[in-house]
């Protein structure tokens, strides 16, 4: 009888830890976030490095995720839908940039708030965007410039 009681208790502890871990993981991914969310749109010339589920950050803090990403056949830009926490109200002249965490880090969408008093409403478009910067392209410019300087 004592063995079965200890087994049931051990099983209960394992189950409680598993439920706690799932709740913690859900909070980290944005599931179950209190307050709801709203969507904004943004078009990037290059969305390299971001995909559905990529973080959207404001001042380094995650405030949303990329919920959709598609190619606009008219402009040939990448149209992104950003799902933001309802508590985050951005000025209408805010900017969205594809940023990198470093040389080996992943990419995320960085929001830079503007100074206007009116705010972006659900479904609005962030007009000021900057796509990802190609590291190889920058290196090629530097190497090309260095070679050009050496010939002079």
Structural notes for this entry:
The protein is α/β, with parallel strands linked by helices. The protein folds into 2 domains: 1-32; 37-142, no CATH class. The chain is built from 2 helices and 8 strands; from the N terminus they run αββββββββα. Strands 7-1-4-3-2-6-5-8 form an 8-stranded mixed sheet, with no helix packed on it. A hairpin with a 6-residue loop joins β5 (95-100) and β6. The longest helix has 28 residues, at 2-29.
Unreliable spans are none
* Major beta sheet, strand line-up: 7-1-4-3-2-6-5-8
Q: How many structural domains does the protein architecture include?
A: 2
Instruction: Give the termini separation.
Output: 91 Å
What is the chain-wise order of helices and strands? HEEEEEEEEH
The tally of helices reads 2
The major β-sheet equals: 8 strands, mixed
Structural class of the secondary structure composition?
alpha/beta
How large, in whole angstroms, is the Cα Rg?
A: 22 Å
Approximate shape: elongated
Measured by DSSP, the beta-strand proportion falls in: 25-35%
Measured as a percent range, the helix fraction is 25-40%
Q: How many individual β-strands? A: 8
Q: Tell me, rounded to a whole number, the average pLDDT.
A: 82
């Amino acid at each position: 009888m004592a063995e079965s009681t200890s087994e049931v208790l051990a099983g209960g502890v394992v189950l409680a830890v598993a439920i706690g871990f799932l709740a913690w993981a859900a909070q980290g991914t944005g599931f179950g976030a209190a307050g709801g969310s709203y969507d904004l749109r943004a078009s990037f010339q290059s969305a390299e490095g971001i995909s559905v589920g990529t973080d959207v950050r404001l001042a380094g803090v995650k405030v949303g995720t990329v919920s959709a990403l598609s190619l606009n056949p008219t402009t040939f830009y990448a149209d992104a839908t950003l799902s933001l926490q309802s508590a985050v109200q951005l000025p209408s002249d805010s900017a969205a940039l594809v940023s990198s965490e470093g040389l080996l880090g992943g990419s995320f969408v960085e929001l830079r708030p503007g100074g206007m008093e009116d705010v972006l409403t659900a479904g609005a478009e962030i007009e000021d965007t900057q796509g990802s910067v190609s590291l190889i392209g920058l290196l090629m410019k530097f190497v090309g410039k260095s070679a050009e300087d050496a010939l002079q």
